[in-house]
Amino acid sequence: MTSSFAKAVLAAALLASAAQPGGAQTYRSFGEEYAGLIRDARWRFGPLLLFPTVLVKEFGYDDNVYFEGSSGRVVRDYGGTLSPELKVYWPFRGTFLAWIRESPEYVFFLKESHQRALTNSYAAGLRTVLFHRFTVDAEYGRESHHQRVSRELPVPARDTAETWRAGVHLETARRSSLGISAFSRRMEYRDIVLGDTPTPLGRLFNRRERSVQADLYYQIFPESYLFLIGQLTQYAFDDPSQAYRDATSQSLSVGLRFPLLGRLRGRLSLGYKRFRAKGEGVEPFSGFSGDTSLDYQTGRLVFRLDFRRDLVFSAFEGAGYFVDGSTRGGASLYLTQFFLLDYNYTFGRSTYARVDPGAIPDAGDENGRTDTQRLHSIGFTIRLSDRLGLSVAWNASRWASSLPGFDRHRNFIGANLTTRF
Q1: Count of domains in the chain?
Q2: Which positions ≥6 away from 158 have C-beta within 8 Å?
Q3: Secondary structure in 3-state letters for 6-35
Q4: In whole angstroms, what is the distance from residue 165 CA to residue 210 CA?
Q5: Exposed, middle or buried: residue 23 (CB in 10 Å: 0-12, 13-18, 19+)?
Q6: Interatomic CA distance for residues 53 and 284, integer angstroms
Q7: In a structure prediction context, what are the per-residue pLDDT tens digits for the chain, which is 421 residues long?
Q8: Maximum alpha-carbon separation in the chain
Q9: What is residue 95's DSSP assignment?
């Protein structure tokens, strides 16, 4: 069974997964985006199109807030995140789009009141068509969140990403495109305390990232594209003690983008990445990467497959980076158009780079460390109205490490509420 609500929920999930910072972005032709905005706008104010959204995320009970091991202090608490958002678009004569976005976010803990936080994210951009074929776009954004910035860190931290981006694409009559884009991103982190020990995230992580990306999108079916993306990125850390992490990476990925609201939705992307740190003692990386999120619907069943594999800078002094990979499979069963059951299973593995203790003075036990993560999630979603859904789920996480004392477990039962007007 296919319903407009089911499509809206799945589309929201795909859009959220595609919007993560740091990776290659999915390109949409100017005409495709312009027509979609005119078609989907529910609120209008003069020439402006308004898209308000209210999200309530992970509101529930956590039996291990800081994801501590058995030897640590296990903290239980109730909490959640409220994240309203407003996007405003100004379409003009079919050849120009300007937009702004405002998104405050409040993180709440009932007992751990010192972890409560109010942050704000905002962005603005424009797109225009020149000579009927060239689309030029530019945007600026500042994203600020209070969250777990990586799997390594059990304590939420404030992270801020300030991004500038500009690009130009040549679009054909079939909405295929060839383009180039440039990015500049400034990453800043606020220090945290793990137990009684301060962790200087700012010194470890603050950096500048600069990227150049070339991409080709070729339309093979209506709303379905074959794409090829190449990217060159440079990383420069602020603190001189972290200069060994300064690095350059090159990546090439190929894949398919499927219709957002068709039977098969999402993005299939696999690639190859090379990473070289300037520090001679840090092991280089060459291998495959992935960024895939697919949903397939047949009758009352929806099947999901997600795959991610990329490099993440480590929070451990001298560890350099780790290769983080995860695969998620799941299914939803629509018992009625108002009620569905969900199950997901995720397996993840984090493999730390090997570093030379003679070249990296602070190299520690993380040298060559491997962690595995398993997550079971079971729940249900209720349709409350045309654009309102309530999801309730139980999540059981298990983490095993090759280092003694780092095995952990966590159970969370909570709700997510999505309102789209």
Answers
A1: 1
A2: 117, 119, 144, 145, 146, 189, 190
A3: HHHHHHHHHHHHHCCCCCCCCCCCHHHHHH
A4: 10
A5: middle
A6: 42
A7: 444 444 444 433 333 333 333 445 678 889 889 999 999 888 999 999 999 999 999 999 999 998 877 666 789 999 999 999 999 999 999 999 999 999 999 999 999 999 999 999 999 999 999 999 999 999 999 999 999 888 888 788 999 999 999 999 999 987 899 999 999 999 999 988 776 677 889 999 999 999 999 999 999 887 789 999 999 999 999 999 888 889 999 999 999 998 866 688 999 999 999 999 988 888 899 999 999 999 999 999 999 999 999 999 988 877 789 999 999 999 999 999 889 999 999 999 999 988 877 666 666 667 778 999 999 999 999 988 877 889 999 999 999 988 887 888 999 999 998 775 4
A8: 66
A9: T
Helix/strand/coil percentages in the chain, nearest 5: 10, 65, 25
- What is the distance between the alpha carbons of residues 368 and 231, in angstroms, rounded to a whole number? 27
The domain in which residue 298 lies consists of: 4-420
Q: Is the pTM of this model over 0.70?
A: yes
- Quickly tell me which residue has 């982190």 as its tokens: 189
Q: What CATH number corresponds to the domain at position 249?
A: 2.40.160
How many residues are there in the chain?
A: 421
Phi, psi of 411 (to 5 degrees): -120, 135
Q: Which residue has the tokens 């801020």?
A: 160
